[in-house]
Amino acid sequence: MKTKYAKKAFTFNVFLSSLCAPPLSMEPGALAAVFNVPESVLSGLRHGKQGRFPVSFQPELMASQFAFGLLGCFPRSVSTVKRFFIYAQSIGERYLVSETFGRTLSLFSDIPVPADENEAEKFCAGMLPALMSCCYEEAYRNTRKARRGEGGGEDTQTRPAETSMDYQERTKLFLKLIYAEGMIRDRPQDFIDIGYLEKIGTILLSQLHMPYFRMIRRRERISLSVGQDFVLFEIAGEAEMLFPQAVPADFILKQTVYHEAGLPEEQAAARAFSGFSCKVDGVPLADYLNPQHRAAPDLRAVREERCEGVVCSEIRLSFRIRPEEASHPVRVTYRYKAKSCCAERVSNVYFYSLCYPCENFLHTVQLSPSMRANWALRVNPVAFDNFGGFMRDETLRNTVGRNGDLYRISFQNWAVPGTGYMYSLYRRGVLPLL
User: Fold this and answer.
1) Cis status of the peptide bond prior to 23, with omega within 30 of 0
2) Cα-flanking dihedrals φ and ψ of residue 109, to 5°?
3) Are strands 358-367 and 212-224 parallel, antiparallel or unpaired?
4) How far apart are CA 278 and CA 288, in angstroms?
């Protein structure tokens, strides 16, 4: 007679193996297709040889999608329902599960198997996907607990409050699937935990129709003026934008400059974007905006702070992009120079942040040889917290790399709006602010 203590833990590799065994008897290749991963990846997970889950396997993102995909591999019939009823009972008998999941499994012992195909259709569209979604979440949670040394199978009644990095990472994963799977746009509630969706739904759902960057590349070189009165920035960048809908949207650049008090806004803007040149899909910006009147982008100061007798202004440059059709990529390339007052006793802080989601992001910042002896940089990534403000977070530290005096900032696999970096430019011997 089997006892509770003879049961095995219901881990993720056990779960995957149970799907390939009777009564479901899924083919490994078909199961890999449900997860949309190579069969080799699934094999590594089944046999416990893969140490980490793919990022898209988070239950908040994959559980419902997996459940409906799995049920799609079977006919909606009475025989299919019987197979899943037997499966639910076998999981409860063979494996250690939490009390909450155990109650879910017991439902399939208490209710009768449907007798006709119409009733079976309802089960295949409702109860069975719910069952498999719960199985997925239970197995995933048990495995994560075991890897952290917390043990598996016991239900956690209370959970810690979600941190801003929970928000950042979960939103990033959801964005990855939003843009990879168009069907999520139509039925997001089927693919993500409803409590989470309600919590930050306004932000996420607004991004479903936002443009996004498929790619951003930006190079920044910092040097000194001849008289060493100003710090000079030479900046070149390119970006590829996609528009889920053929609706115009702003392309936005921001540049920080330090200048003397009383400098008019127009002159501060001229220092921030000196010699600005830009092309949209190879067309010069003035011609793109208005071929007849050669229109110029909008320039304005959006932030101003005073520090040690100088003024720090953030200048915003923006112009409208008009996509000809939905999901058609638009490429923007630009160059400009900026000029900022030298700091004597304090470091100057400059920052960059994304205004739209971005799939692949790479920026480089480099000091010129003439600056390296007396100047230094300290670069920190920043993220967007639940309250709309910037935060520094050590978990983002691996997004910044350094090769000599070349700093490389990269975000892979989606970065959400507000993600970016700050760098402190300071004379050696002066304490950096970051």
Assistant:
1) yes
2) -95, -25
3) parallel
4) 10
